[in-house]
Amino acid sequence: MTNATADDSAYDVIVIGAGAGGLNAALVLARSRRRVAVVDAGQPRNAPAAHMHGFLSRDGMAPRELLAAGRTELAGYGAHLITGQVDRVDVLPESRPGFRIRPAGGPALDARHVVVATGLRDTLPDIPGVRERWGTDLLFCPYCHAYEVRDQPIGVLGTHPGAVGHTLLLRQWSDDIVYFAHTQQPSEEERERLAARGVRIVEGTVKRLVVEDDRLRGVELTEGRVVPRSAVFVFPTMVPRDALLTGMGCAKDDNGWVITDRAGRTSVPGVWAVGNVIDPRALVVTAAGMGAAAAFALNQELVNDDITRAVERHRMATALPPLVR
């Protein structure tokens, strides 16, 4: 890298989180000849999934293959890849603006800007078999996985306020959809909509997922009845991994998600956020695009800052007496 910073011991940007959003932000910045480091704990949200979909030219690729390819590309541009969990990010004083990143068990790292791409955590219902089948035949995203189970008997667990809407969305992939009411009884209006779309409602409490020969076979109710299903969808409670952002004072909206503009700027200058940490609906391809958009805007801010500092140095140099020069 040839771009000197105000403090050559500091990075221009440190990206926290090496999912698609973080890696793509780092890639664009590294290609902009910025000094970049990526710190990642190695716990991607989509790790249980064997394949990802909806990403042009990468449809069906294993998520870990995409991330491995991204890391290789980054290394080729001189970006530093650091394995570790970041415990804290401190905002440095105005006399030395920037940020200090503190990875657990490693040395502190300084940067002019920080991109947080730490994703979110899926909280699943406490039903036997759910966590064990997560990412195989216990699924969430219709756009990611419904095509692979099209025309099969599908169930949806009523464990979240969004479960009925989830069921109605899934109906276009299969004619055989069952909504398990469980703890989310549909309203009269919702029952009418489900009936109109040919969705059967199964009353009662779900006891467990029935698995035989490492395949989902059905859903068992507490009364003992088993409803055969080949795949089951669940709407998890999505909790953003935003402790680093809130620790720096980034503002949140009324729903509890950190606020950014379209480029990923938070309310704290120099702090950016991309991907699922700010948007639970972001697919892999969406997160990658968010990372690129943030990198474009972030690099422009660095350029403007570099120009301002260069002008200040130029004025100081040209203001000196001729002999001193």
In short:
With 325 residues, this protein is of the alpha/beta class. The protein has 8 helices and 17 strands.
Description:
With 325 residues, the protein is an alpha/beta fold. The chain folds into 2 domains: 11-122 and 237-319, FAD/NAD(P)-binding domain (3-Layer(bba) Sandwich), CATH 3.50.50.60; 125-233, FAD/NAD(P)-binding domain. It is built from 8 helices and 17 strands. Strands 1, 2, 3, 4, 5, 6 and 17 form a 7-stranded mixed sheet that branches. A hairpin with a 5-residue loop joins strand 5 and strand 6 (109-116). Helix 1 (20-31) runs parallel beside helix 2 (63-76) and helix 1 packs parallel to helix 8. The longest helix is centred in the C-terminal third of the chain and has 36 residues, at 284-319. Keywords: Flavoprotein, Oxidoreductase. This is NAD(P)/FAD-dependent oxidoreductase. Residues 11-291 form the FAD/NAD(P)-binding domain. InterPro entries: FAD/NAD-bd_sf (IPR036188), FAD/NAD-binding_dom (IPR023753), Ferredoxin-NADP_redctase_2 (IPR050097). It catalyses: [thioredoxin]-dithiol + NADP(+) = [thioredoxin]-disulfide + NADPH + H(+).
